[in-house]
What does this fold into?
Amino acid sequence: MGLSLHDHFTIFFTILIKSGLPLTLKLVLGSFLGACAIGLAGGVIRGLKIPVLDQILGLYAQLCRGIPDMLVLLFFYAVMVYGSTYSISVLAISVIQGAYMQEIIKGGILSIDKGQWEAARAMSLPVPVVLFRIVIPQVMLIAMPALIGQVVLLIKGTSVASTIGCLELTKRGVIAMARFSNALVVYGYILIIFFILCHALTMLGRRVERKVTRKVMGDLYE
Amino acid sequence: MIFMNDDKAVILSLQHVTKAFGKNTVLDDMSLDVREHEIVVLCGPSGGGKSTLLRTINGLEKINDGKIIYRGEQVTNKNIKNIRKHIGIVFQSFNLFDNLTVRDNLIIAPVKVLKKSKEEAIRQAQEFMDTFGISDKMDAYPHQLSGGQKQRVAIVRAMMMEPDIMLFDEPTSALDPEMIKEVLDAIRRLAQIGMTMIIVTHEIAFAKEVASRMLFLESASIRVDAPTEEFFTGVQDERLQKFLSVILK
It folds into this structure.
């Protein structure tokens, strides 16, 4: 049963860090960008209450929140004719996480003081200018903690890609188990890597938050 | 009705304007003409429809019936965007854009709506800020200003659109007493340059000083509409007398 130091090295570095982690990071980056794009577009549409689209996106959010992530992924895997397990995973995770981000951004937009819109309307400022120069920067400030929390969930959520054979961290671990049959060590390492990723992001998030605050509201904002 | 300046052009005319929120009628068949250089002050108990009347003028509230005519042109959904450019409004709660510096608050609309050059807009903003005694605040964010400073910036922001009529919706109601004067002084200055204004305020002494005409609104209608002098001395209206006796204590 005992694993040699060399085995530990093989599992941790050769298999997990060198082969698994890069793909996990690619999954995170890809689905982060996808989810942000969906979340921003959907959130703005819902925040502005554009008829029909608002209702459709509301249904979309309900569905994604009501269906297990793994089932969404398996569904995409079943219906997609083209695409690698990586790209299908990115798509599925983007769609799932985009729904959550959409709801966060929608909430942020609705929480912006009505007076900001009224002042803009009274001066005939075009809606895109109001959105991008005034509303969205303020939404970012309000929604930043929730969005960072959602990205942490996104990172953890990438492990679902292992179910369709995407060779990210978790899948590498499952395969390594066949060779080393030591769950405690193999899954233990994966657990540590994920924890470090998420923790680092939370830490980074706090700094980004402060930066965003300063950028949006100037110095000395409490 | 007799007005001293009957010969001046009517800029804005409200004709039989009616507005209801659900079953609650807030403006009941109101008519009002505003002439060039007139300063019309609306007063009356809360819930009388003062703010709503003001907000209908630049389309922040839609009217259910009647019409609003601006310089001979009836205000519609189509032309409201264009007409608004000429009507400045100052809100009770300032409504400065929180994430923009004073400078950007002032130039965003002139640049994006009036298509002025940035340099021109900044130069003009600086001039106004000098006039109102806050020229050192150009780089500040709204949260770094006092209430009185915020409201003066809001007045400058509205003036930057070169309006030919200014609306004030209880501009001093959210201010500490010591800041009220600086905002009233700013409005006095606009009065001196002949700006046409409609002001909703509870500052009756101020109204008496600057208004050319006073309106008393109660229960969704204009109960009294009289030149300022007459309003305070010659109008026989039980409700107005009661209101004035309370507010002048």
Summary: The CA atoms of residues 43 and 103 of chain A lie 6 Å apart. Chain A touches chain B at residues 113, 115-116, 118-126, 129, 133-134, 137-138, 141, 216-218, 220-221 (CB under 8 Å). Residues 5-217 of chain A form a domain with the MetI-like fold fold (CATH 1.10.3720.10). Chain A is about 80% helix and 0% strand.
